[in-house]
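ARCHIVE RECORD
Type: protein–small molecule complex
Small molecule: SN-glycerol-3-phosphate
Source of inputs: curated submission
Record status: active
Notes field left blank by submitter.
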Amino acid sequence: MKFFVDTAEIKDIEELVATGLLDGVTTNPSLIAKSGRDFKEVIAEICKITDGDVSAEVAATDYDGMMKEAAELVKIADNVVIKLPLTLDGLKACKSLTEKGHKTNVTLCFSANQALLAAKAGATYISPFIGRLDDINIDGLELIREIRVIYDNYGFETEILAASIRTPNHVKECAIIGADVVTVPPATLRSLVKHPLTDKGLEAFLADWAKTGQTIA
Ligand code: G3P
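STRUCTURE (tokenized, with ligand):
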């Protein structure tokens, strides 16, 4: 399973790239607004930090507008992935961009039928939002399960990019279900390494090691 980080904060991306565990980055208009930075500038900077796929979302809602914006965004770097909303215009743009050889990420997916349409439109990634479904008392992970079954039934190559991840448990369940990618906020991504017994065990080993008076290097 690939790990993407869901942020537009350069410092977080740099730190996570340095771990060697990061496969890509996703952004959205809200994350760009939160960064307070120029959209194209920040995407260019992220693309320089990582070779992985970097999702940049269009702001237009009509087909022509999306295609115009996508044409600008793909100029930024080879690893830019065009993020499009799950609407008929978005799917039409997805199909056209796929035919032109560009990578796409169809976002704001909340149903299995929407995911089916995105796969038929040739999306590179589909982004089902787990947390936002949980927020309205619908099981977000169930959506990931349904999409996995549907894509496997027909051999669709569209990758399931589980988004709106809120907890480490979401990450674990996505891995069990077989999501291809999870995009995770930086703090949640860092928290995956934590276990109190790891900390306690390490503390004990270090204390015992100190008693030996030895050094390794
Ligand atoms: O990038 C899309 C998605 O990950 C947003 O998550 O927490 O705003 O629902 P959230």
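CURATOR ANNOTATION: Residues 196-212 form the longest helix (17 residues).
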